[in-house]
Write a structure and sequence with these properties.
The complex is a heterodimer of chains A (453) and B (282). By secondary structure, chain A is of the alpha/beta class. Chain A has helices at 23-34, 71-74, 91-104, 200-212, 236-245, 250-264, 290-296, 342-345, 379-398, 400-412, 435-448; strands at 10-11, 16-19, 39-43, 111-113, 115-122, 131-137, 144-148, 150-153, 175-178, 192-196, 215-219, 226-227, 230-231, 234-235, 286-287, 301-303, 306-309, 314-316, 321-322, 326-329, 366-368, 373-374, 432-433. In chain A, strands 4-3-2-8-21 form a five-stranded parallel sheet, with helices on one face. A five-stranded parallel sheet of chain A has the order 9-20-10-11-16, with helices on one face. In chain A, helix 1 (23-34) packs parallel to helix 9 (379-398), helix 9 (379-398) packs across helix 10 and helix 9 (379-398) runs parallel beside helix 11 (435-448). The longest helix of chain A is centred in the C-terminal third of the chain and has 20 residues, at 379-398. The two termini of chain A are 33 Å apart. By secondary structure, chain B is an alpha/beta fold. The longest helix of chain B is centred in the middle third of the chain and has 14 residues, at 92-105. Classes of the chains: A alpha/beta (453), B alpha/beta (282). The interface between A and B is large, with 42 and 35 residues.
């Protein structure tokens, strides 16, 4: 632990505080250490891995979760996943991968487990932009405050579920579970299951239920593109990266992809799904080969959005009534930064922080790590985010003159979306990026952060 | 300039292959008071042989010597070499992939040691894996001048490589005269070959990407190495901001030559003096 100090604030000098030891936090710790910074990382659980640490109560991972991006596009750039692993590793493998990463780079001795961050405040009137970070043991205990030169927020965005408020839900006599609570898919056996939510978690759980339950309905608000995991015998994200490499105009690429999906996955409206109301890429991709297959086997009934709940029935927006005895809410997650005051993040009217490059806040010494969703795995993106931030902190130390120039560039990029296509205006898409466009932006940032040694 | 978009790596991943890795566990230093702690601090050392050689060239002497001095030591064979799976059409990229895969599989952040063309593989792997440190021994970083030199010294062994045949070094290129001729000839006979594609790629001029993680790099070799001239050693060392350590009188195969002990001791001394990474806690 940082040395015990009786005064209310202990000065940790130029040290950097990292909040969270999930994938993003670990990447931040490793890349900051590499540039010579001293790091204190606070983790509320007792192990590393964040959302992949599936036994803890906030993990959204279920027993059958597998990656939806392939091994090659999912790994950490300077610590690849073993090439003996399957194309789509499961969540246990991903967790062991993060644990090995922590051991390989000897990160655990910089992490304070079982410690949660309660408050992060700018040090009043400090010209260097330092921070006061207040922590305590998870769930209670004495609060302690330390001062840090910089803070990396890597607290994840898959732990606070969005709970929809349907009319009459409180009167419903059946069971209602959040997706993350379905740790063991055998609880779906012989039940009559309604899965609400068209995201990847919803699709995964619908597939689980379709194979085990007595009846399964899958409720989505709109039609989606269901992308298979394999195409032409290869993981589809690898093919897609090859397509991206051709540098075709986005519309042409979308047309090609949609055409290919029509030819391979086919027309899903004949199973009762609505046709997609958007071009591919305008919402986070749903990668699921089994869902169309099980639709074809009649194991799964697609239904529209829920209108209201009755005592033992659910009424749909088209007036139909169905009678599930288990409702699973896979209605997404929202990022939360309870330890930060609203003004620190400077949110827009809709409450979203206005970031630059999806990482820089208005404070030069406060950055977000991992607040991105992409068309491939995100570990690679977050790795470079944290490298950019570490190099930025170093440039601030060695060359204040040049750092002003960099910061005005960062400011000029604020609020700019780094996605190839206009996204559906759905609140969950505000941190969606296109891998290539985003990495090229980070590459530009790194080029400006080079320091002669 | 750091390159971060590596489309080929993710769009066309290198296929997996069985890789031979030999390991020697370190001997704990019981007599020193900080015995257990020093074992913790010594990073694993991964040795990468050059074209044609396998893990065995290090298993002869260096592997166990490093372990005796307290380093967890590993030696690997690139695909198509030693006991690793065959790979006739392997490219340099596949060799680099092999090194990065083995390095990432080790329990701790590793030191990469490459010999001969293995030093080129290591130098490229440094852009993909943040090594604790790197050692380039008698580095063959490629180029046409090397070919000319090899053709003059050993036309019969070199010429077949021009048409995709194996590149064979004569035992007098590999070893000094201090090593008995029978032993030298036997070692030379055990050498295999790299793939024709990788041999061709060795000729291409290239600029090396900067290493990630800013590792310290040690370059060493012999001024009497018939394969790598001293000027080349100096050039490589300058590239990494230092001067080469020289071991006069030795041949190209530093790890098998009669005085194999001198270079490995110098390497281990250098590693022991490296500052510890990450600092302390709190």
């Amino acid at each position: 632990m940082p040395p015990v100090n009786m005064s209310d604030s202990y000065d940790r000098g130029e040290n950097v505080c990292v909040i969270g030891a999930g994938a993003s936090g670990l990447l931040a710790v490793k890349n900051l250490l590499e540039l010579g910074f001293t790091v204190d990382c606070y983790e509320r659980e007792t192990g590393v891995g964040g959302l992949w640490n599936w036994r803890h109560d906030r993990s959204p991972v279920t027993a059958t979760t597998h990656l939806i991006s392939s091994r090659a596009t999912s790994g950490i750039p300077d610590f690849p996943m073993p090439d003996s692993w399957p194309d789509y590793p499961d969540h246990r493998q991903v967790h062991s991968y993060l644990e090995r990463y922590a051991d390989h780079f000897d990160l655990r001795r910089h992490i304070w487990f079982g410690t949660e961050v309660v408050r992060v405040r700018p040090l009043p009137g400090d010209p260097l932009g330092r921070w006061q970070v207040t922590t305590r043991s998870t769930g209670g205990g004495t609060e302690r405050t330390h001062q840090y030169g910089a803070v990396v927020v890597a607290n994840g965005h898959h732990w606070s579920p969005v709970r929809p408020d349907y009319e009459g839900m409180d009167r419903f006599t059946g069971e209602v579970l959040l997706a993350g609570a379905v740790k063991d898919p055998t609880i779906l056996r012989d039940r009559r299951v309604l899965v609400i939510g068209g995201g990847n978690t919803g699709a995964d759980l619908a597939v689980e239920a379709a194979q085990r339950a007595a009846a399964c309905w899958h409720s989505t608000r709109r039609g989606y593109w269901y992308v298979p995991k394999y195409l032409l015998g290869r993981p589809i994200d690898q093919l897609n990266q090859q397509l991206v490499g051709l540098r075709l105009p986005t519309r042409v690429r979308q047309w090609l992809t949609q055409r290919t999906l029509r030819l391979t996955v086919g027309d899903l409206t004949r199973f009762g799904l609505p046709a997609p109301d958007h071009r591919i890429g305008q919402s986070h991709p749903i990668v699921n080969s089994q869902l169309p297959y099980l639709l074809g086997h009649g194991r799964l009934t697609p239904v529209p959005d829920v209108a209201r709940f009755h005592a033992d029935e659910v009424e749909l927006v088209d007036g139909r009534r169905i009678a599930p005895d288990l409702v699973v809410l896979a209605t997404g997650y929202q990022p939360r930064f309870d330890f930060l005051e609203q003004t620190v993040l400077d949110p827009d009217p809709a409450g979203r922080p206005q970031l630059s490059l999806h990482m820089f806040t208005r404070h030069p010494t406060l950055a977000m790590a991992g607040l991105v969703q992409a068309d491939t795995g995100v570990f690679g993106l977050v790795h470079w985010q944290t490298v950019v931030f570490a190099r930025w902190l170093r440039l601030r130390q060695v060359s204040p003159g040049r750092s002003a120039g960099f910061w005005s560039w960062v400011d000029s990029q604020r609020g700019r979306r780094l996605h190839d296509t206009r996204l559906l205006d759905s609140p969950r898409h505000w941190f969606e990026v296109s891998r290539d466009r985003y990495l090229r932006m980070l590459e530009r940032a790194l080029a400006q952060l080079e320091v002669d040694r | 300039m750091i390159r971060i978009v590596r489309r080929r790596e993710i769009a066309r991943p290198v296929p997996p292959v069985h890789r031979e890795v030999r390991a020697a566990a370190p001997v704990p230093a019981d007599d020193s008071p900080s015995g257990g702690a020093s074992d913790q601090q010594r990073p694993p050392l991964l040795m990468v042989p050059g074209f044609g050689a396998g893990a065995w060239v290090f298993a002869e002497h260096w592997l166990h010597h490093a372990a005796d001095r307290g380093f967890p030591a590993y030696a690997m064979s690139l695909r198509g070499h030693g006991q690793s799976g065959s790979a006739r059409r392997a490219t340099l990229r596949a060799y680099v992939h092999d090194v990065v895969q083995v390095a990432a599989s080790l329990p701790r952040q590793a030191v990469l040691l490459g010999h001969g063309a293995g030093a080129l593989v290591v130098a490229q792997a440094l852009a993909r894996y943040p090594a604790r440190a790197a050692v380039l021994a008698a580095p063959v970083l490629g180029g046409f001048s090397l070919l000319g030199r090899a053709l003059l010294r050993n036309p019969l062994g070199t010429a077949p490589a021009l048409v995709g045949g194996p590149l064979r070094l004569h035992h007098r290129q590999l070893f000094s005269r201090e090593l008995p001729t029978e032993a030298a000839a036997e070692y030379a006979r055990r050498m295999g070959r790299a793939s024709a594609r990788a041999q061709w790629q060795l000729l291409l001029p290239r600029t090396l990407e900067p290493p990630v993680g800013e590792p310290p790099v040690l370059v060493l070799g012999s001024p009497h190495d018939p394969v790598v001239p001293q000027a080349a050693l100096t050039r490589v060392a300058q590239r990494y901001g230092g001067a080469p350590l020289l071991f006069p009188g030795m041949g190209h195969a530093l790890m098998l030559d009669a005085r194999w002990r001198e270079p490995i001791d110098a390497i281990l001394d250098w590693l022991e003096k490296l500052p510890h990474p990450g600092g302390g806690r709190g």
